[in-house]
Amino acid sequence: MPFDFEFAKSILPHLLEASVITIAATFVSFAIALVIGLFLALGLRSRFALVRRGIWGATQFIRSTPLLVQLYFLFFVLPEIGITMPPFLTGVIGLGAHYSCYIAEVYRAGLESVPKGQWEAAVALNYGRSRAMTEIILPQAIPPMIPVLANYMITMFKDTPVMASITVIELMQTANIIASERFLYVEPMTLVGLIFLALSLVASFGVRLIEGRLVR
After folding, report:
1. Alpha-carbon dihedral sign for residues 55, 78, 35, 100
2. Which domain holds residue 28?
3. Which tens digits make up the pLDDT trace of 74-124?
4. Virtual CA dihedral for 41, 206, 202, 145, nearest 10 degrees?
5. Count of structural domains within the chain
6. Domain containing 132 — which CATH number?
């Protein structure tokens, strides 16, 4: 069957509108992952062995189980114990929590890359642990992390279609609805692929610009 350009043109505005939901889900999920990931990374560096082992075990469990299963648990199992959330909120929490376990390792590596002499200097200046972290350690640790974190954001963006499994009407779900109504799958799925490709390329270009500025 030949590609129907007229049909593709007619559905493109609907897909672009749905892509806003996909982009919003990516940014909200990424923000959640950044916050949770930082706390996990700090916990992995805790002086208390029980805290370190507990967080390590939790992150390994989440990283070793499929994101889809985790979303199903949040959306279908939690209501059984009285915890109900809207599909979008469930999706961004699930996506953010999942990726926070990967981002925690990025934070941890970044923090460990700061020379120990910086900590010693903070102690010599009578800085408390929290003040030393926020004013001395993190400002040095974060810049090298930015390209890696940006790449995780792009990967997260490409994983947002899994949210369709819990009824979030994002880009992929919109394409599925259009395709099932018209029994035409080539055009909507092709456009979805092109939209994801275009946005990923733009984001990748932005990452390269950031890397170039950091190198300078």
Report:
1. positive
2. 5-215
3. 999 999 999 999 999 999 999 999 999 999 999 988 888 888 777 777 777
4. -20
5. 1
6. 1.10.3720.10
